[in-house]
Amino acid sequence: MPRSVNSVAAKDRKKKIYKLAKGYFGRRKNVWSVTKNAVEKGLGYAFVGRKLKKRDFRSLWIVRINAAVRPHGLSYSKFIKKLSDANITINRKVLADLAMNDAKAFDAIVNQVK
After folding, report:
1. Which of 3, 21, 32, 68 could be stapled to 99 by a disulfide with Cβ–Cβ 3.0 to 4.6 Å?
2. pLDDT, tens only, 39-90
3. Contact assessment for residue 75 and residue 65, using Cβ atoms and an 8 Å cutoff
4. End-to-end alpha-carbon separation of the chain, Å?
5. Does residue 2 lie within any of the structural domains?
6. Half-sphere exposure (CA, 13 Å, Cβ side) for 49?
7. Is there a domain that residue 105 lies in?
8. Domain that holds residue 109
């Protein structure tokens, strides 16, 4: 009986990893052991990057809201406290967008909570 090997599935698995390594330089793109390690490390960085992106955007929104409420004599923390006391539930992303693109609407919200 001939020897049975799983070369088709193994080749498919390797092809998937090599496809992820497209654009890598040197041996990182065509030597299996190096490629596998480089892709695993890259996927780890990508996972962390997705979490950091959320953190970075939230801090950007906070900076924008703070800059928009300062001329009204408020700080960011006092503004958020007054928003919650007034039962206005608008998230920071929308508030930052209003502050940047629709100053009249943002001013109306600030005057409502004052």
Report:
1. 68
2. 999 999 999 999 999 999 999 999 999 999 999 999 999 999 999 999 999 9
3. no
4. 86
5. no
6. 6
7. yes
8. 7-113
- Tell which residue, 62, 74, 61, 77, has the closest CA to residue 111: 74
Q: Tell me how many domains the chain contains.
A: 1
pLDDT band at 2 (very low <50, low <70, confident <90, very high): confident
- Between CA 58 and CA 65, with CA 61 as vertex, the angle to 5 degrees is 140
Has residue 103 got a pLDDT over 90? yes
Quick one: tokens of 19? 């496809």
Q: Does a structural domain hold residue 1?
A: no
Query: Taking Cα atoms as reference points, which of 58, 64, 97 lies closest to residue 79?
Result: 64
* Locus of tokens 């299996």: 32
Q: Which two tokens stand for residue 4?
A: 């049975």
Name the more confident of 3 and 66.
66
- Report the predicted TM-score, pTM, of the whole model to 2 decimal places: 0.80
CATH of residue 48's domain is 1.10.1900.20
